[in-house]
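Q: Here's a chain of 630 amino acids. Please give me its 3D structure as tokens.
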Amino acid sequence: MVATGRKYVFDFDSTLTRVEALDVLAEITLKGRSNKEEIINEIQEITNLGIDGDISFTTSLERRIKLLNAHESDLPILVEELKTKISKSIEANKDFFRDYADDIYVISCGFKEFIDPIVKEYNIPSDRVYANTFKFDEEGKIVGFDETNVLAMHNGKIDCLKNMNLDGEVQVIGDGYSDYVMREAGIAHKFFAYTENVHREKAAKNADYITPNLDEFLFVNDLPRKISYPKNRIKMLLLENVHPDAFKSLSEAGFSVETVNHSLTEEELIEKIKGVHVLGIRSKTQVTKNVLEAANKLMVVGAFCIGTTQIDLDACKVKGVVVFNAPYSNTRSVVELAIGEIIMLMRSVFTRSTEIHQGQWNKTAANSREVRGKNLGIVGYGNIGKQLSVLAEALGMRVYYYDVNDQLALGNAVKCNTLEDLLNISDVVTLHIDDNKANLNFIGEREINQMKNGAIFINLARGFVVDIPALAKALKSGKLAGAAIDVFPEEPRSNGEFETELKGLDNVILTPHVGGSTEEAQANIADFVPNKIMDYMNTGNTVDAVNFPNIRLPKQNKSHRFLHIHKNVPGVMAKVNKVLAEYELNITGQYLSTDNEVGYVISDVNKEYNKDVIKELKKIENTIKFRVLY
């Protein structure tokens, strides 16, 4: 036992377990009944009325037992089922129940027959479990409960706790108003509304603390816990209508997540970013140096897209902010759109469709060509360019590519040594280059003049890489036979009116930056980026970070993990190890990765150490960020 001067009183249903036990018992006893759902809904409604104090608990109990039609033989099945439904954070902090066993009690309006065997595994003996007991008839059918038990009576928890006469500060942890009444009556000092499984407004609004999980309760009380910092205290802000799967996965992991369905201006973001640990954006929100200066707690930026030019990566690095993006998740979507647009433009489908919409019938083969046997020039032979190469070749196109880096050709694709060589030979030119600022107006009047007369041009890469006035001039003059443009130099922050010189031109397909915007791609991104964010927050892994030393860490094994981000200057690593040595820490593993500007060292240490070491590590000169994980 660890002496704390406190006593901890837990509710059982929807607190220690994720469910109401009598609801689970109903699922067991009513199996096969045609009116099963109707009865279960009625039981749940009665349960909630009793928990919120809207009907007497005695009435609630009587009505539920009558509906259950349960037998003694159902109880072992119920116990086994409840063992699989322990609240996640309770299960994760089993050590707390072991180390503070003498200070922990259960007061529940449930029944000892199923509570005792569950909490026994958490070092809570039967004599510290206060609950009701069933009555059985001679055939073993549950017919009622011990009506003399105070917990069978309205607000019986008050009398129960009063009769226990506990010393020290009494803290009650539960999900319902029936738990709060012990605080209201003055016999408990604090009430924690436990909302991990259900949020009951009546209990929450009267609570001293709202605790979304046991980690928060332990943190508030400065008690040993499984994780160093409750995830619900880590604030995440997702902008630009990021796919809802991202919100779901991050929220279910326990983080506090806010979503905004549009981008924010610099001024708006400066105000919004304060207190935020993780920022999620797409392509429109600009993460500038000014924004980062205001970001007092920011640790991660997640770009739910491929490009990162909207983020000041250098400023992020200086601040110790790690940036992740999604370089592969929407490549297939972009490739499929490119293939579709190549075919539509070569066949003048868009022009013929527009004529039909305007009430004109113009059946003609003029300017309608097969893609088979035509030359496709791919500028930028990366993930997208290579996939496009394979699919285009399958359609019978001859593929040529140009890339500033050496890239291995796939299939029969032919490498061009210069951009001019590719432009001269291609019937279709498609851009798939990155967002390097040096690529401004990569395709301008000079490059367009190098293209074949009547060529098709496609840009699904970046808006600023094409000189739009030069492109419009070439389309109007007939130098180019058609174009598909998905990205523009200036794009609006949200849906609405938009103007471009390309509007209204024949055989020109204009789309609002939707190359990667398919349901599948956005779902993939909403899986990939949150996983990278959570991996960094939970373990310190920086694999696939775009601005930070990449390091893949082993799983923590009964250790605390020190994460130290510092300027990459001589002597910092020596100072880190000197501090660890002075405090005689048992280091179980140490990992280091650096680039020209930043060093990232991770030290796994034995759980037992002098906490002053943390202050000393933070004080080391050139430290950018420091945190502890366990």
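Q: Can you summarize the key feature?
A: The CA atoms of residues 290 and 520 lie 35 Å apart.
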